[in-house]
Amino acid sequence: MNIRIFDDMQQASAAGAEIxxxxxxxxxxxxxxxATGSTPVAMYKELIRMNKAGEVDFAKVRSYNLDEYIGLDxxxxxxxxxxxxDNLFNHINIDKANTHVPCGTGADHAADAKHYDEMIExxxxxxxxxxxxxxxxxxxxxxPDAVFHKGTHVVDLTDSTIDAxxxxxxxxxxxxxxxxxxxxxxxxxxxxxxxxxxxxGKAEAVRAMVNGEIDPxxxxxxxxxHADVTMLLDADAASLL
Length: 241
Ligand code: F6R
Prior knowledge:
binds fructose -6-phosphate, seven-stranded parallel beta sheet, alpha/beta, single chain, three-stranded antiparallel beta sheet, 30% helix
């Protein structure tokens, strides 16, 4: 694992944007695996700036997001499709037809999940997978469990995740209780993984991911087995390493 520790989130996010821009420069139709949440927002802002400055061209880039809430369609302002449009896609020259977010409103989630994995495979797999990490060690919405789940699947969100995400909703009751998420197989097959973590609240999850046993109770710990992981941390998130 390549662990890079920065003074602050801004510097780490700029480094992340640079890695993505280099990947796109080397392969214009790069397949990005993208995350939502507060962690990647500063990196997406920097990518928007670079795109407007002509430093990175998304014209041929394809993207597959990690996850989506069950029951929220793309017009809901807390859906992850809405988040991606609002925080990145609406501000760069990406072709929206090349952007993908799992469908959380279909009639057959198992069929949608299978189709999502097939689409990623047909695209040649993910070149660069952007990840945040949950306080409980989740990546995507792969929550702590007895096993690692391989494919895209529907998951019951843990109380800790619902609590962490309720800040975005009017009340806790409105937070969806389920999500559809890329599985560990999809994440581990990415050629390169870029994980960002900021703040003291992430320090224990980062410690367990890097120094703990490889254990489905800390889903991110499986990244110890990936050949090309770069972690971009601020000093607080790295404080227990
Ligand atoms: C989001 C995702 C989640 C978040 C994690 C951290 O697409 O897959 O795993 O990365 O919950 O969330 P923030 O960044 O809000 O702390």
